[in-house]
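Anyone have tokens for pyridoxal kinase? Sequence:
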Amino acid sequence: MKNVLTIQSHVVYGYAGNKAATLPMQLCGVDVWPLNTVQFSSSTRYPKFAGPVTTNEDLLKIVHTLADPEVDFLRRVDAVLSGYLGSAEQVDAILEIVDTVREQNPDAVYLLDPVMGKAGKGCIVAPGVAQAIRDKAVSRANITCPNLEELQILHGSELKSFADAVNATVELAKKGPSIVMVKHLHRCAKQPGEFESLLYDDNTGKLYHLTRPLVALPRDPVGAGDMLTGVLLACLLTGKTALEAFEHAQNAVYLVVKAAEDAGELELQPVAVRREIIDPPLTYRAVELNPADYQAKQKAL
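Reply: yep, here.
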């Protein structure tokens, strides 16, 4: 069985970070090693929350102990997943962890979820974080999963159209990650009011576009992106192709969000659809696109 060290936040109530990713990843057939960067009472969207932050020193101490020859656990790790990073120093700590894992297992995969921005809000992280992710982390990642705002930050210029998003996705893959999934295209979507996503696999040169309904919750669900990246990684580790993993992840997470709508809840509902997460009906399929078509469109402008 494959093992994933996932370094993200944790909440007691609700689903975000590791809390959102762990169960779905386990259901998809991987063993999950959660390393929590914070432990909060709930996500920060609520009027009041509290909890401790794990220092970078403690994160490193935990990982180095896992690598100690007396226990020799870290060599079992097949992949590292990192989510929200609170400081430029934490980016450095995560990359040290990735290096430590790869010393034990040179084939270990690193999935970087570059949590930096939100639609309509731009960059939301502390000063220096976006630059550290762009300049240091992207080139070390095998897989990265930005949303549109994060893709724009990594690209360095405004993205205004579907063609812009396609070209930025392909260009990002040239900087290190062999697989890039853009979780949600927002304003660059082909069809307003739909949830659209891209996946580019630089190993094959294949580009895929998937459209599914946008679930009308009162506010955007916290943790859906964390769950999406986790399921994508789990599917890849268990032998699915990039296309198969993309379709599985998008359909599974859609059902989790839809379950929240059906239950009248603001929080994700993975337990309610646990069986479907394992083997979701592939109601929404990806369509293959030719990246060159969109490069030509951009040049024509």
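The chain has a mean pLDDT of 94.
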